[in-house]
Design goal:
The chain has two helices and seven strands. Strands 4-3-2-1-7-6-5 form a seven-stranded antiparallel beta sheet. The termini are far apart.
């Protein structure tokens, strides 16, 4: 028998330190779960807000398209801007629009046939930048804004005669 030793008094500081370490570990684990969940929630919200989710109901396509592909493009769907994270592929029958990782969550790739793109017009933005703005679908499902150079890939029947260069 140990005389004069209080085991509880000896172990108490070690238990407090262990408890503190467990709290830190739980906070780290909670952050590892919450951050991806928050990221997914924000991307889902943006897809709803801009209209990507509406476009996906009609134009979702996981099929690869043969044609000219341009990565790190900017554009807008509705009021949501996609800065340097769009992948645009142009072919004879339409345009494929996809989002790069890690922004692809809630943004499936789209294939929009040329016949569903209408009311194409030039839109001036801040600092004199120009974009092509077009309505997609009939009736309109969403508004798509892409860089002005994209007009070079649009077939003549899609482009409005009032665009620069008579396209």
């Amino acid at each position: 028998m140990l005389i004069g030793y209080n085991i509880a008094a000896i172990c108490r500081p070690h238990l407090r330190m262990l408890s503190h370490q467990v709290e830190i570990l739980l906070i780290i684990l909670a952050a590892l779960v919450a951050l991806p969940g928050t990221w997914c929630g924000v991307l889902w919200f943006l897809a709803q807000l801009g209209g990507w989710s509406k476009l996906a109901k009609y134009y979702r396509s996981d099929i690869a398209v043969e044609g000219g592909t341009h990565r790190k493009c900017s554009g807008k769907v509705g009021i949501v801007s996609y800065k340097s994270c769009l992948i645009l592929t142009f072919c004879d029958s339409g345009i494929r629009v996809a989002v790069t990782l890690p922004f692809r969550i809630a943004h499936p790739p789209l294939f929009i046939p040329w016949v569903d793109i209408h009311d194409v017009r030039e839109k001036k933005m801040m600092l004199g930048l120009s974009f092509l703005q077009a309505n997609v679908g009939s009736p309109t499902v969403a508004r798509l804004s892409l860089p002005i150079w994209v007009g070079e890939y649009f077939p003549p029947q899609v482009i409005h005669a009032g665009l620069p260069g008579g396209r």
